[in-house]
């Protein structure tokens, strides 16, 4: 309960865990979270794993409400720390963006396998290693630069692989040029 950007800066109303979810790659588990506030101010929170159908819930009663003075203090605190919270959120978002990009590049390298030239694979692995070092540095400027570098360089390599695959498919297709498309004929009215 509170007005701050990060949960740790607010008052915890309750905690619960959704257990029994089998190990899976990042992004695979789908968790549906439902918040329901009734007329009495009682909050019902339910989390359900869509894969296993396991769910857990918690009910938070109005006895945890803040006093008017506590609410005023929370609002003032939120205003006081708004800029700091914004910067902290931006830094967290930048880290998450780079972390997600590292994951995506590693997954693409694994998925492409032999379709990726050895030198391209080595370059991507080196880029990922550098990005991981930058991520661990906690330096926001390094993290942003690493995100930009990894994005640009990996896109170039993956575009090249895509073009090669498209060219190979075109060559296998054996088109004789008679696909019914209009040629260079002129149209006269």
TrEMBL record:
Pfam families: HSP70. Residues 1-14 have a biased composition (Basic and acidic residues). Keywords: ATP-binding, Chaperone, Nucleotide-binding. Residues 1-27, 164-189 are annotated as: Disordered. It comes from the Bacteria. InterPro entries: HSP70_C_sf (IPR029048), HSP70_peptide-bd_sf (IPR029047), Hsp_70_fam (IPR013126). GO terms for molecular function: ATP binding; ATP-dependent protein folding chaperone. PANTHER family: HEAT SHOCK PROTEIN 70KDA. This is Hsp70 family protein.
